[in-house]
Design goal:
The structure holds 2 protein chains of 2 kinds.
Chain A: H1 2-52, E1 62-65, E2 75-78, H2 86-105, H3 124-134
Antiparallel strand pairs in A: 1-2
Chain B: H1 2-6, H2 11-19, H3 25-32, E1 39-41, E2 64-71, E3 74-81, H4 92-108, E4 112-116, H5 127-143, E5 149-153, E6 156-158, H6 163-167, E7 170-174, E8 179-181, H7 185-192, H8 198-202, H9 204-211, E9 216-218, H10 221-232, H11 273-280, E10 287-289, E11 297-304, E12 307-314, H12 325-340, E13 345-351, H13 358-363, H14 365-378, E14 383-392, H15 393-398, E15 408-411, E16 416-418, H16 422-429, H17 431-436, H18 440-455, H19 459-463, E17 469-470, H20 476-487
Parallel strand pairs in B: 3-4, 4-5, 5-7, 6-8, 7-9, 12-13, 13-14, 14-15, 14-16, 15-17
Antiparallel strand pairs in B: 1-2, 2-3, 10-11, 11-12
The chains are: A mainly alpha, B alpha/beta.
Chain lengths: 141, 504
């Protein structure tokens, strides 16, 4: 009976230590995650504040477009054309992307891998098969 | 003469057309076609009638502009009715011009696009104008399944004129300015005593959501024309060619972890199947057809690795994704369109079965449901199915099951493939055992659990070869792309015959 009690005590103490260490580790990890998120939020807020204060030009020849929302990474324009407002450049960029999207949806020539119908000739198997599919039935003589 | 043809019904009528919020036929064609690509046919043709004052109303072109052009560099045949000329009324000359352009489109293997804006038949021409409809209808039918035919309703479309769009592959309608009906509100009131407005009778909302005549509705004419361009991007030039492939812009091996958790754990909870489709297809490539009609099924075109695919899916967030008459019509029609234009069909299955009830039975759910089976069995294009959750009874068979010539059948681990729901099955299988049990409720619950454990998973079906592979949801996209790559040169031939008898 004494041995059993001793065994139980040892198990409880051992497991307790293991789980305590695991709990401490878990807390530490949570702390690291929260600290990391806090640092990221702070950096983003600082970037937004900088952009809002008009400090768009980070270095000569490059300009930063203010982000649409906090947390969005800044777009750096390398070698931006002179005399163009970064906001105008951002608007043009969005318009180009939108146009590209529309062209893609319509499978416009610049977006096509091949001319409609041309792939057919890459496969004689398909060409012959489709011809067979479309043939009307004729009795053999 | 040429200048007169270009100005249609004259400045006053053009101004009136603009005042109605509508564009003229030539303005529409200018928006639809690539710049400088339009070659007009029969620009100066006009009628030779003199009765009822028609002799004084001769306009070059006779109320229709027809010809060839290009949309995004692709050749198309077009005709546009000109409402400023005699209300765009259908005449013998109009029919001749439409027939000629249809014949040339068929011979050249290019899509035909019709812009409808007409008050109906030209009454002054009598039976000749009715015969004119016949000329157009026969060409619509002969071109069906040979070249894509798209009809735009951009104004009134009444009487016999409605059948030409109905015989075409797709109908696109502009909101606020267009309507379609066989008999107008006055005739309806005279015959049935029912008082309805034009919009209530044949407005875009009616045909979009209730009748299913219209496949796409746009808010404005410009948007309708843009929609046609987009729709054409998924279609080939003719039934012998492949649809255009867009340069791949979304990684073929992209995995989406969200798919793994998209199916709710609680069986009775719904989800939006469009989210699955959007995540599986190339980014922003899904164009839903018939979005408002029979919303318990979702059909549309998407792209996988840049290639056109037809997507068919049950929508669990509407009526649990059950198949009813309208959903059957919608799915079967779409599968057949994909089949004739060599577009592979991908089917997402989550369907508890066909909708029960006297209403559906009396209205012929059997023959309508048979359309789905017929369409899938007849289709020779690559067919891939993915069972995402429920695939019960007849609906499992109908929705692109392995035996119906489906090439690859996938299932997600959440799939439940069974003859019927557990509760109903247990009542049939264990009726006597349950009634003789000490506690019938407890016994029934135990049998239900046993049945669910046995059938409510995809492995039993996979074991018997009904499912080719149980895949992780997040890898669906790459599995589909890989399968379609293999099946790209698939050619299958149906037995020779005049034509099958499609359940009607």
């Amino acid at each position: 009976m004494d041995n059993l009690l001793f065994g139980l005590q040892t198990t409880v103490i051992g497991m307790g230590i293991v789980f305590s260490v695991l709990a401490i580790l878990w807390c530490l990890l949570m702390l690291v995650v929260k600290l990391d998120a806090w640092a990221a939020r702070r950096a983003a807020a600082r970037a937004v504040a900088d952009a809002a204060a008009g400090g768009l030009a980070a270095d000569p020849g490059s300009e930063a477009v203010p982000p649409a929302a906090a947390g969005t990474p800044l777009v750096r324009l390398v070698g931006a054309p002179d005399g163009l407002d970064p906001r105008l450049i951002a608007a043009i960029t969005i318009a180009i992307l939108r146009h590209e999207e529309t062209r893609r949806l319509q499978a416009a020539p610049a977006m096509r891998s091949y001319w409609p119908g041309s792939l057919l000739f890459a496969s004689r198997w398909v060409a012959a098969g489709r011809t067979r599919q479309g043939q009307s039935w004729r009795r053999r003589r | 003469m040429r200048a007169r043809a270009l100005e249609g019904g004259g400045p006053e009528r053009i101004a009136a057309q603009h005042a109605r919020g509508k564009l003229t036929a030539r303005e529409r064609l200018a928006l639809l076609l690539d710049d400088g690509s339009f070659q007009e046919m029969g620009a100066l043709a006009t009628h030779e009638e003199t009765a009822f004052g028609l002799g004084r109303q001769r306009f070059p072109g006779d109320g229709i502009v027809a010809g060839f052009g290009k949309i995004n560099g692709r050749r198309v045949a077009v005709f546009a009715q000109d409402f400023t000329v005699l209300g765009g009324s259908m005449s013998r000359v109009q029919a001749n011009k439409i027939s000629r352009i249809s014949d040339l489109a068929m011979e050249s293997g290019v899509p035909l696009i019709g812009l409808n804006d007409s008050g109906g038949a030209r009454i002054q021409e009598g039976v000749a104008s009715l015969a004119a409809y016949g000329e157009v209808f026969v060409r619509n039918v002969l071109a069906s399944g040979v070249i894509p035919q798209i009809s735009l309703i951009l104004g009134p479309c009444a009487g016999g004129a409605v059948y030409s769009p109905a015989l075409m592959d797709f109908v696109v309608m502009a909101r606020d300015t267009s309507s379609m009906f066989l008999t107008g509100p006055d005739v309806v009131a005279a015959v049935t005593g029912e008082r309805v407005t034009i919009d209530e009778l044949g407005g875009p909302d009616v045909h979009d959501a209730r009748s299913g005549v219209v496949h796409l509705v746009a808010d404005t004419e410009r948007q309708a024309l843009e929609l046609v361009k987009q729709l054409l991007g998924y279609l080939p030039q003719n039934n012998n060619e492949d649809p255009p492939q867009v340069i791949p812009y979304d990684a073929a091996d992209r995995m989406d972890d969200e798919l793994n958790t998209l199916i709710p754990e609680v069986e009775s909870e719904a989800y939006d199947v469009r989210e699955i489709i959007d995540r599986v297809c190339d980014r922003d490539s899904f164009l839903e057809i018939h979005p408002a009609f029979a919303p318990n099924a979702v059909v549309g075109f998407g792209r996988l690795d840049g290639f056109s695919v037809g997507i068919v899916a049950n929508q669990p967030s509407v009526m649990a994704g059950v198949l009813d008459i309208d959903a059957s019509d919608k799915i079967s029609r779409f599968v057949r369109i994909c089949d004739v234009y060599n577009i592979p069909v991908v089917t997402f299955v989550d369907c508890p079965g066909f909708l029960p009830g006297t209403d559906q039975e009396y209205r012929g759910i059997i023959r309508h449901g048979a359309k789905i089976i017929y369409a899938y069995c007849e289709a020779t294009v690559p067919k891939i199915s993915i069972v995402t959750r429920k695939a019960m009874g007849g609906a499992y068979v109908a929705m692109s099951s392995r035996q119906m010539r489906t090439d690859v059948a996938f299932a997600w681990p959440t799939a439940q493939i069974a003859v019927m729901g557990a509760e109903a099955a247990v009542k049939i299988l264990y009726r006597r055992d349950i009634s003789m049990a000490v506690d019938p409720a407890e016994a029934e619950a135990a049998f239900v659990k046993e049945y669910r454990d046995a059938f409510f998973n995809p492995y039993r079906a996979a074991d018997s070869g009904q499912i080719d592979e149980v895949i992780e949801p997040r890898e669906t996209r790459q599995r589909l792309i890989r399968a379609l790559e293999i099946l790209r040169t698939k050619v299958q031939q149906n037995p020779p015959r005049k034509h099958g008898l499609f359940p009607a």
